[in-house]
Amino acid sequence: MKAARHPETFAAQALGWTEPTHRALVPPIHPSAPYERDDTGAYPGGHSYTRDQNPTYDQVEALLAELEGGKGSLVFASGMAAATTVFETLCPGDHVIAPSMMYWTIRGWLRDLADRGRIELDFVENGNLEALEQNIRPGKTRLVWVETPANPTLAITDIRATADIAHAAGARVVCDSTLSTPVLTKPLELGADLVMHSATKQLNGHSDVLAGALVTKNEDEVWERARHERGYRGAVLGPFEAWLLLRGLRTLFLRVRASAANAQLIAERLAGHTSVAEVMYPGLESHPGHELARKQMNGGFGPMVSFRPTGGAAAARSVVSKLELFRNATSLGGVESLVEHRAPVEGPGTPVPPDLLRLSIGIEHAEDLLADLERALG
Length: 378
Fold this sequence. Notes:
Layout: H1 7-12, H2 55-68, E1 72-76, H3 79-88, E2 95-99, H4 104-115, E3 120-124, H5 129-135, E4 141-147, H6 159-168, E5 172-176, H7 181-184, E6 194-197, E7 212-216, H8 221-233, H9 239-249, H10 252-271, E8 276-280, H11 290-296, E9 304-309, H12 312-322, E10 327-328, E11 338-341, H13 342-346, E12 357-360, H14 366-377
Parallel strand pairs: 2-3, 2-4, 4-5, 5-6, 10-11
Antiparallel strand pairs: 1-7, 6-7, 8-9, 9-12, 11-12
Helix pairs in contact: 2-9, 12-14
């Protein structure tokens, strides 16, 4: 695509790849598991077995690498498969630092790894660089995990400053950029070594695919280890799911910008509502990470808005029961708007406030969503 200069064009045309036999513009699905060898035993088609590679993966992985500015990409059967593969590249006893507020399932899995003696683990407050410096162990800490904006409090972490501290101690930085996507943030350009996505969310955008992705700054030995781990563990995406993910990526920029614009309007309206005690959204000047988010994010602050209604957990339950357009479901990043009373979902031990409501803002008309919230808040 020599004439293309902007990522929106690469995404919309899926890198401009054309199916070579029939010159089809829509990419085909390759369901085959085995691939034929030639007389020498080699694979002239470049693929051996679909647990390791598949032509349907090639295009979506190339596009993700292009959008993130990375050297390589891998798609996985889920976001958790992508995340756990990163930690499987570590050696027993390696030290990991993770944020205290992060996707709950990864947090629980890390605790389980630490309890079984697989890793040494410290949690630090999101974005607290002083706490990071106090907990990092030069030569021992191998991985610093960043999630920004954090789920569900939308705390912001300085990726560049975190990378400087981690790299000085010999550690890698992995950034979960699910809530931002390459439309809004480029973690690799800010110093991260790997980017992780739950591609189920905004990358696909239609709530009909379970998928994950990793993108690397450098194709080094750790990346090769991750590639082999995916194949050995069979954590691969199905060809049809890879095709659906690629289809979703072609409208990524339109969807993310539309939902982020809606989220900004909703956050501003909620911030002035008498029945709302607190709004968590980095696009608000009142948010403690607003200035950093403004520098680190480009073109919006994401589709997620969390807020706490006045009246505590009982009020939160009441609001959810009265909403009509916001569907009560666990996920985010789709074209439809969702609401979730988050703490009861995570269960005992969650650091999430008991009255926090998490909104995933879709691409519906903003005034309809605002009217729905106004009605539910009374």
